[in-house]
Amino acid sequence: IDKDDIYFIDLLPHKASAGSGQEMSQINILDTLPILKELVFNPDAKAIEARGDSMTGISIFDGDIIFFKPGIVRGDGLYILRSGSDIFIKRLIFDYVSNKISIISENKLYPEDKRIKEVDNNPDLICIEGKVIGWIHKHPY
Prior knowledge:
This protein is mainly β.
């Protein structure tokens, strides 16, 4: 492999909860993760480890490495977001008419009231850190 075929992606020391949330202090860099350019497509991507089981319905498992583009908010999709000091990976659906965001956990084993939460699109309530652009899956078996 030629070194020009590799990006070195910043790996954040936090875990993006695919569950109830993990406290996030500051976005510091833990390490860099070498990854083939063809797998990420973006040198500005950041990486964070998933924790929990709320996103297993779309095959994001505990320990998977999630790649996201910081600062990007473009339409519905998977995002890294912060609520208070907790950081999450969730599916977001934007309702621009009512100025609401649906925050969705992708695990059908969760009761619906635990899977879907609707909040006002207010930066004081949630901060969208960036859009997920891919992940490396570590199968739990």
